[in-house]
Specification:
The protein is of the alpha+beta class and about 180 residues long. About 30% of the residues lie in helices and about 30% in strands. InterPro entries: Acyl_CoA_acyltransferase (IPR016181), Acyltransferase_MbtK/IucB-like (IPR019432).
Length: about 180
């Protein structure tokens, strides 16, 4: 599989991801009832924000996942942990499919992490998935994340976890 990542274009990509973020399997994305206009508005705001970016991931040239990168000292986790220089927050969502491929999501999260660590300024990746999202906890662990503690965000109880470059490289057996 060849994975590439490109910047999100709200005017074109909102229509692409609308069925992804509203799919029942994307319940943790918290956009179940969102209209196409809601999605376009949300991602227009994200792409315009100085501390938040969105990307479309392609696998073998086909759109297959959504990735967000954010500065946790400015968004999402302000006041919930002590940020360190080089911290980068991340969200990702794999497009729903009727024909799942074994290992696909792990390939995606590995590519997302490699993309984040391709920036030499990234020291540590921070995630805050819902505590009940056991599937993503297992994926996070597979690429080197270490849970620190549960935190209460306005919209959910989350598991605050961190992954350094060294932890990622050790987990996936590669150097970035």
């Amino acid at each position: 599989m060849t994975v590439s990542i490109r910047p999100f274009d709200p005017s074109k990509d909102a229509r692409l991801i609308h069925p992804w973020v509203t799919h029942p399997k994307a319940a943790f994305w918290m956009m179940q009832g969102a209209t196409l206009q809601d999605v376009e508005r949300e991602y227009t705001a994200i792409t315009a924000h100085p501390h938040h970016d969105a990307f479309i991931g392609l696998v073998d040239g086909e759109p297959a996942f959504l990735m967000e990168r954010y500065d946790p000292s400015q968004l999402e986790l302000v006041g919930l942990y002590d940020p360190q220089p080089g911290d980068v927050g991340m969200h990702f969502l794999v497009a729903p499919t009727d024909t799942p491929v074994h290992g696909f999501t792990r390939t995606v999260i590995t590519a997302v992490m490699a993309e984040l660590f391709a920036d030499p300024a990234t020291v540590r990746v921070v995630v805050e998935p819902d505590v009940s999202n056991k599937a993503v906890h297992a994926l996070n662990e597979a690429v080197g994340f270490v849970p620190e503690r549960e935190i209460q965000k306005p919209e959910k109880k989350a598991l605050l976890s961190f992954c350094t470059r060294e932890q990622f490289e050790a987990a996936v057996g590669a150097t970035v």
